[in-house]
Design brief:
about 120 residues; 2 helices; five-stranded antiparallel sheet; alpha+beta
Length: about 120
């Protein structure tokens, strides 16, 4: 007499396979990356003396897209720089760097931009 496979064991193996397949699908449908952007000594030519108005400041902005429809656009890099300078009452940024990052999950995509630097005020 040939024995029948245990139905509970088969069901358990099928559930484990389904969990593994779901995990693989999620891993392959979610992606993110980041990259260093522009790096500059300053946003304006520094020809004279200046005063640093604090430590490194950071500004960021993110955009959002669902499927192929843009829902929100990130601010341009120049606007982020202007916001940082105006917020501190300065004239320019020094030691400037930027970074962009992207995150995608199925139909959702987020794109972010970040700028860092020290705000300075030129001596007159």
């Amino acid at each position: 007499m040939i024995s029948q496979p245990n139905k509970t064991a088969c069901r358990s193996h099928m559930q484990a396979g389904l969990v593994l397949l779901t995990a693989l699908l999620v891993m392959f449908s979610v992606a993110s990356c980041s990259s260093t952007g522009a790096i500059a000594p300053s946003t304006l030519p520094v020809t004279g003396k200046y005063v640093v108005l604090g430590g490194v400041e950071t500004a960021s902005s993110c955009g959002l897209m669902i499927a192929v429809v843009p829902v929100k656009h990130p601010k341009p890099l120049s606007d982020l720089i202007d916001d940082l300078v105006k917020e501190k009452g300065g004239d320019a940024l020094i030691e400037v760097s930027s970074e962009s990052s992207f995150f995608t999950a199925l139909l959702y995509t987020q794109a972010c931009l970040e700028v860092r630097g020290k705000v300075v005020k030129f001596s007159r």
